[in-house]
């Protein structure tokens, strides 16, 4: 055995002897650790038994430590998932006693944040909301004297978000004022170091005013939020702000700005991986139709991957029918996809798109007519007679079909077109001048015999109205019989009637 080997063996023996008591502690830790991991293995198949196993872990520790903290965390999550909210609150209260000495500040803060995020995502009923509120209240009380402003802000923002979801706007309004003050300096200006939190508070307040349709306050806050430059916000927060801005612009019928905001909102939600991107993409399609744009919203690089997404296929088909002016396809899509109108915002604004479609369809249908009935339009476009009458009234007032009259008793519509009036005037002038020519030929032509009148009249009638033939250049030429009977003077008289050809051309 070499000297080095001997020294290593000696060191090992000394190490084992010196830390013999520590091995006993380590064996105890291994037992606690095994208990914890055994519980984790069964939590998927037998969550109730796993809860009991996790709750036994803290009791195995002589002093509060990491394993007890971890065991309580797992038990609380399972209890919340199973709807055992009272047990979850009780054990969360116990968990908070570990943060003062048993675990480090950073670890405890991260764990509490993760716990609050977990219950926030899993809440879906009134009891769960009440449990969340108790969690937030216990957290704020526990960290009140720890000078942990970051956790205080995060927890209060979560509480404010809960009140927003529950539409408790009175409590929310007070909370956002408190949070705004916490994000400001002593002189009342925004603290650049808290810019991210400040934007989250703006997002909450903007959502509140969007829900309550207080557009005046919403517009001021929206513009202020866009000027915050000191923050690096989570893209989901900017997605929320831009979405509310788009809805605000929609209420003002500012379609172009709404489209821009919805596109930015979609881009941010997509970056954040938020499912809200699908809903906002529907809003973007809706805005495109309201703008009466022929640009397909799915032509951009960001939206192209969603063109064939089944979740928005109905909206894709709608914009396609809209841009083709296919009213029947448009109406069929709405009729066969009632879920499109399940979103209150879409239901509120799709009526404007439908009205635009029906108005264009009516204009296209009546273009060749000067007289038609309301029932005819109703049957062709498949809308009610009162709606047809409403659309026609709008078109008359908007000077799209001027000089039109609706007979309320018979349901008939008569349109006096200006171009028809001009044509009739031209025809009247042409007829008058032809009559003058006729009188001139009969009365003043040299060598004209009265007994030939009947033959001349018959010849002119057989020429299609008889008074002449239409030349290639649009001039009216005298018939052969007229030239034969009238002689040279008739030709001279014809040349003097240059206005006839012009009048005839205008009439045609």
From TrEMBL:
InterPro entries xrefs: 26S_Proteasome/COP9_Components (IPR050871), PCI_dom (IPR000717), WH_DNA-bd_sf (IPR036390)
Compartmental location: Cytoplasm; Nucleus
UniProt cross-references to Pfam families, sorted A to Z: PCI
Entries under SUPFAM superfamilies matching the protein: Winged helix' DNA-binding domain
Annotated Gene Ontology cellular component terms: COP9 signalosome; cytoplasm
Keyword Heme: no
Superkingdom as given in the UniProt entry: Eukaryota
Record keywords, A-Z: Cytoplasm, Nucleus, Signalosome
Domain PCI: 251-420
SMART domains: PAM, PINT
Main location per the UniProt record: cytoplasm
Annotated stretches, region: Disordered: 1-26
Assembly, per entry: Component of the COP9 signalosome (CSN) complex.
Family recorded in the similarity comment: Belongs to the CSN2 family.
Name recorded for this polypeptide: COP9 signalosome complex subunit 2
Upper taxonomic lineage: Eukaryota, Fungi, Dikarya, Ascomycota, Pezizomycotina
